[in-house]
Amino acid sequence: xxxxxxxxxxxxxxxxxxxxxxxxxxxKNGVEIHGYDLTESRLTKKLVAEGMNIHYDINIExxxxxxxxxxxxxxxPQNHEELMWLNDNGYxxxxxxxxxxIISEEKxxxxxxxxxxxxxxxxxxxxxxxxxxxxxxxxxxxxxxxENSNFIHGNSDxxxxxxxxxxxxxxxxxxxxxxxxxxxxxxxxxxxxxKNLLKAYYDLTLKVKNGGRILLMGEFDHVFNKAWIEKMxxxxxxxxxxxxxxxxxxxxxxxxxxxxNFSNSNITIENVKSNLPGVHNISNTTAAIQVALSLGAKAExxxxxxxxxxxxKRRFEILHDGKCVLIDDYAHHPEEIMNAVKTVKTxxxxxxxxxxxxxxxxxxxxxxxxxxxxxxxxxDEVWLLEIYPARELPIKxxxxxxxxxxxxxxxxxxLHSSQLIENLKKHDKLDVIITLGxxxxxxxxxxxxxxxx
Length: 453
What we know:
6-stranded mixed β-sheet, globular, single chain, UDP-N-acetylmuramoyl-L-alanine:D-glutamate ligase, alpha/beta, Protein-Tyrosine Phosphatase, Chain A
């Protein structure tokens, strides 16, 4: 796919967070955009308002015949009627990951990888760079609160994007800078086991361009050992490790904001104030600071930009802060649930916290139901909703009851999402509510806020 020659594109699954960012990139570059998605959403409505043409029924007649190519998300099944028609009629079909791969090859790309924290880290880095006057483009896995967008358009060669491990998509990338936040097991329906997942991360590091840089944000010696370090050195790739080459310290919470100091061998930035709660987000921000400094951002501007960052939608987003508090978090892995629980209990230590969790995917629930039960038990009250299937068909015997039965508390409920609002109306001691999961649970937030006002 020659990106510069494209005039008209068709997107299958345009409403996804990753696909919509790419669609916005092409729209900004003068390409006419058409697309299909299963359901209309707030995001697709905004895409239409920006000038895209989207339909929500499977209808071959609505596909323009003079398109230059098709971009597809892996969520679209191979037996999708529109996809089969496009294949049968010889249209050029490119996966989302392949498009990002072409962009990363042509640009000076900063890629953020890891099981957790990709969206937060890439978003805070993009914010720092733009705030400090650097011209960049960014493809983000979430919506920035201030911009209400997952894409930043720039004219320079600097691009920030997420290296998505799902479907081994990140192996299409060729970054100049690679941040690896975590390598916890996930997407085992794709990889089969942890060993194959770790090999994919290893292979990703081999994609870093000569003269590039890798930041390791955890203890990953079981993957990136001495022999790997020697290989990176031979490839002229610099490896920096958290705590060894750069670090954060003196963490404290004051007026519900986290404060910390950043330092590396060249500079110390004291009293960095962050609106992103949780020590895990301080670590994410530390990675962003290190990269921003290497790209020319100044220390004082970095500190100011972090204090002014308004956050990302659905990443520990405080939606209502009154007598009763409503928080939403995208946590859909036991490690992410653990961080969300720790953070909410740190910020509201003497208050009763109700967690409403909707597991995402049958396969992930089957892999991690014990971990989910363990981590969510740190809340005062837990309500579990049915599994959100997303791209999957049900797996026999796999349901939310697997988690529910292992939660060692009496103050718990197993509900269908259709029962959620009615049960909240009957609750007479609502204090702090946190909704958790990568589902569409956010569609209930407006009703919840009306209840707790």
